[in-house]
Amino acid sequence: MAALVKRVGWATRPLLPVVLAWDLDARRWVRALRRSPVKVLFPSGEVVERKVDPRKQPRKAAAEASHREQRQKQQIQGPASQTLSTWEESGLRYDKAFPGDKRLRMLVITPLFVCTHSSVMTIVKSRPFREKQGKILLEGRRLIADALKAGAVPKVFFFSRLEYIKELPIEKLKGVSLIKVKFEDIKDWSDLVTPQGIMGIFAKPDHVKMTYPETQLRHTLPLSLICDNLRDPGNLGTILRSAAGAGCSKVLLTKGCVDAWEPKVLRAGMGAHFQVPIINNLDWEAVPDHLPADARVYVADNCGLHMQVQAQGSNKASDYGWVRDQRPLKFHEYEEEEGDLESGESQDWLPKLEVQSYDSDWTEAPAAVVIGGETHGVSLESLQLAESTGGGRLLIPVVPGVDSLNSAMAASILLFEGKRQLRERVEHRDRR
């Protein structure tokens, strides 16, 4: 029959549109018979829903139906059926994130800033990101508690157990986004072997607006610390901890130092960031503005500029091999122009600083100690600042042939030596 119709169609042109129209209508009716309508609307206006067996539904249709039913149930039951949970005793509200929750991939930190799933680790590892967005990441209950006590402003907390949040001051959590996640998520974000189950994103603290502990303020000494080209996070964190323990009035970090708010520095500092003012990323021209007008700057020059031959009967510190023979890399460019440093011909360009032992009296006036990095040593700018303030070079005796001390160790020795001298001066004055 089909062949006959085709032959007739080929033979007589006027029948071709009729055959094509019949073919189209047949296809439409076949498609309509295959459909499974969810609702049927009768001419009378009555609507009848059709129950369909989920096992016979396609996967996509089953997922859409399930999602539609869940949404209708939430509309009927109200907000209590959603993922928001409320503390009855405090009135604080927290979000509970489930596996595959989109909020773990798009977390709103502020109304103007959206953080993707990977941004938690971006805040951890990227210094430009932290400086541009003004955000830092703190991990651990003690560090977060110290930050809140000092007046740091939290934005978001991620926690795996509700008890961790309840340990924090309730009044500090008003307006903060609280998101409960699985411990596996925190473990993925953290670079600790054993994460503590709570992480917080804070606004980058401003030392002017911070509230430091009263005990720390009572024991503050006229002693400042300047970090010059310190690039090891562990060393800087340990130095900050020593500065807080010695009672330093402030810590200044020049450009070239590692970021003080890097997670490794925060862990090594053990809360020192919230006990002593830290001023980050300073140019050398701006350093004197943060020191007392009568302050003297002393350089802990572990990378000495001259290597003196040990001489018997001499009382100069540099004659006893207390300075290692590796010159700072920053001075190499001058060696090519001025000749050999050890020959004595090129020493005119160097600042003239008195070399003295670390245990000599150097705290008569407010003092600032410069600690250089182990690789590059102190910079020329630090020596010039020491010369202009009437300071000098402080050297710690080391057995000849032994390399210079670790920067954190040298800083600790000098800071606590300065504290000892200041304490003895006060005791001597009281005895009078």
UniProtKB/TrEMBL annotation:
- GO BP terms, alphabetized: methylation; rRNA processing
What taxonomic classification does the UniProt entry list for its organism? Eukaryota, Metazoa, Chordata, Craniata, Vertebrata
Region feature (Disordered): 51-84
Could you tell me one molecular function GO term of this UniProt entry? RNA binding
Biased composition range(s): Polar residues: 73-84
CDD domains given for it? SpoU-like_RNMTL1 (cd18106)
Q: RNA 2-O ribose methyltransferase substrate binding domain location, by residue?
A: 137-208
Q: Name one Pfam family in it.
A: SpoU_methylase
Gene Ontology annotations for the cellular component aspect, listed alphabetically: cytoplasm
Q: What species does this protein belong to?
A: Muntiacus reevesi
Q: What is this protein called?
A: RNA 2-O ribose methyltransferase substrate binding domain-containing protein
At the top level, the lineage of the source is: Eukaryota
Which InterPro entries does the record match to this protein? Alpha/beta_knot_MTases (IPR029028), MRM3-like_sub_bind (IPR053888), Ribosomal_eL30-like_sf (IPR029064), rRNA_Methyltransferase (IPR051259), SpoU_MeTrfase (IPR001537), SpoU_subst-bd (IPR013123), tRNA_m1G_MTases_N (IPR029026)
Keywords in alphabetical order? Methyltransferase, rRNA processing, Transferase
Composition skew (Basic and acidic residues), residue ranges: 51-72
Member of which family? Answer: Belongs to the class IV-like SAM-binding methyltransferase superfamily. RNA methyltransferase TrmH family.
